[in-house]
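[audit] Reproducing an earlier prediction to check determinism. Same input, same settings, fresh worker. If the tokens differ from the archived copy the diff job will pick it up downstream; this log only records the rerun itself.
[audit] input (223 residues):
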Amino acid sequence: MAALASTLPKTDASIREDVIYELKYDPKITSSDIAIAVKDGVVTLSGYVSSYWEKDAAEKAAKRVYGVRGVANDIQVKLSLTRTDPEIARDAVHELDSHVSIPADKIKLTVKSGWVTLEGAVDWQYQKTLAESAVKKLKGVLGVSNNIEVKPRVSPTQVKTKIEEALKRNAELDARRITVEVEGGTIKLYGSVRSWAEKEEAARAAWSAPGTMKVENFITITP
């Protein structure tokens, strides 16, 4: 009987309760002004936090919860201390320069009203991701537009093979339930997984392949 109950879909109320606990126990989330609503497995986050970093952490925490099918992040960043765009820009440039894995010389950034825009071209997706992670935690940042391009260096066939191999190596995923299609530098994922976390894990595997410029994740969640 217990085994049967564990396979039943979670109710919105139980998902909301789990999201509340997930946010509560994440050390990066300190705000008590976050409201959570759930309808048909889709979580809506609203309220206020003091940094873009915390807003991003709240979204990731909600996505980790089993049963969550989607997240709408309507949280607003309410700064406790306003900083000027030149101050944010100087800190962002310094942050990019301090990371040995980020080709800072290939990245240009602009700041307008606290919003950082990243542009340029890098060889790997992880460099693009690192650049965004480096600047979004800075004080005064309200948001980040990551327009950095990833230039493909391998053929589509090689990319497809590397992603399929990565999926098979991942103990958390059943690679047989996932199909990979490649169009240029765009990766399309199809199939079904049991949770949002597994869906994101499949996307992470796709992004880890050299030459991946874009991932379109059409995988469905079937708890």
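[audit] rerun output stored. Observation attached for the diff report: The chain is about 40% helix and 25% strand.
[audit] end
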